[in-house]
Amino acid sequence: MTDAPRLHSAYTVRLRPVGDAELQLRYRVVHGYRRAYLMAGDGPALVLIHGIGDSSATWTELIPDLARTHTVIAPDLLGHGASDKPRADYSVAAYANGVRDLLTALGIESATLVGHSLGGGVAMQFAYQFPELTERLILVSAGGVGREVNPVLRLVSLPGAHLMLSALRLPGMRLQVGLAARLMKLLDTDLGQDAQELLTLVDALPDETSRNAFIRTLRAVVDWRGQVVTMLDRAYLTEGMPTMLLWGDRDSVVPVRHAFRAHKAMPGSRLEIFEGAGHFPFHSDPARFVALVEEFTTGTDPADWSLEHWRDLLCEGPITPGRPDDARDRVRERDLREVSERSAT
Questions:
Q1: How many other C-beta atoms can be found within 10 angstroms of the C-beta atom of residue 113?
Q2: Alpha-carbon distance 232 to 332, whole Å?
Q3: What pLDDT, on a 0 to 100 scale, did the predictor assign at position 199?
Q4: 229 vs 257: which has the higher pLDDT
Q5: Cα separation of 157 and 148, whole Å?
Q6: Which residues of 278-307 are buried (b: 16+ CB within 10 A; e: fewer)?
Q7: 279 noted as active-site residue
Q8: Is 117 a catalytic residue?
């Protein structure tokens, strides 16, 4: 591990002090690729996983408060932020493996995972692949619950997306995008709730390498019809794992109805809706977000995983109380039809 240099202009964030030290990016080389991450605090491990096109910078305003009671690790996923951006596997399963490898290198044996958007899908995949390492799940406007996704993301998944994203770097385009974002905000549209975040994502793609990584990541989870992976077929495996869902009721990227669908599919899960918030509820109301995370992590016991329990769940499959088997199968089949493919694992 090496000390982080000052961030270059394409990746500038506002950092707050944590205790007596400034929060800075650190680096680890795993499988030959540099992985950037933020780390602060002491106590039970809390891993914050950002969404597509984003980075650990999205959590910087929350980390000082969360680090009072947790060891907080916020990685830049491969292809994002200050991490390397190779021509590589950017699937959800590969990201889950990457998070596991980074935590192992840092000596973290188990953790509570907080995943936003794509990061929510990565957190769910991590819990599926490595349940013995997962203490709790906190899913924030998570992908992987239904086909619906913002049309802009579907458009970017099409051939020619490189040219479209490159055009955003032309002189004057940043100003036009900024004006459009402010107009959506002034008109009080759902997409306008996340206007500032949209501008940040545009700024996060300054060169061809960044844009290539973004498109590869997007096409692993979205095509012209919408999201192409689902967790609904395995959501029942979270039985016994404390799970909380946090969503903005004006989310224009992943609609809030996905939250209710996931809540129904995940036994014993808790659902919290942020009224008036868009796709980034932790930006809209950071104090409430931090309070909920701290309450949830201190008020629940870590999941007690066992091979026997896992085997029993797999053999029994999902159970819908009060429904005969044929009706249960029809309900599950209907939900699964809303996505195009299942996770490749």
A1: 28
A2: 8
A3: 67
A4: 257
A5: 14
A6: bbbbbbbbeeebbebbbebbeebeebebee
A7: yes
A8: yes
Residue 328 has pLDDT above 50, yes or no: no
All domains of the chain in start order, with CATH: 9-167+175-336 (3.40.50.1820)
Query: Tokens for 41?
Result: 């605090």
Starting at the edge strand that comes first in sequence, how are the strands of the sheet with 243-248 ordered? Answer: 26-30, 33-41, 71-75, 45-49, 111-116, 134-140, 243-248, 270-274
The answer to whether 135 and 303 have CB atoms below 8 angstroms apart is: yes
User: Is the CB of residue 15 less than 8 Å from the CB of residue 60?
Assistant: yes
pTM of the entire predicted model: 0.81
pLDDT of residue 125: 95
**Catalytically annotated residue among 251, 252, 258, 283:** 251
Q: How far apart are CA 31 and CA 101, in angstroms?
A: 9
Q: What is the pLDDT of residues 93-106, one digit of tens each?
A: 999 999 999 999 99
Contact predicate 203/253, CB 8 Å: no
State percent of the chain over pLDDT 90. Answer: 53
Structure tokens given for 251: 């989310």
Nearby residues of 156 by Cβ (< 8 Å), 6 or more positions away: 164, 165, 215, 218
Question: How much is the pLDDT for 324?
Answer: 43
Is 162 a residue of the active site? no
What's the rounded Cα separation, in Å, for the pair 106 and 1? 9
Q: Identity (one letter) of the amino acid at 229? A: V
Q: Which of 55, 56, 83, 117 is catalytic?
A: 117
- The mean predicted confidence, pLDDT, of the chain is 80
For residue 2, the cross-strand partners are 27
- Identify the residue with better confidence: 144 or 267: 267
Distance from the first to the final alpha carbon of the chain? 31
Pick the catalytic residue from 279, 283, 335, 343.
279
DSSP string, 89-122: --SHHHHHHHHHHHHHHTT---EEEEEETHHHHH
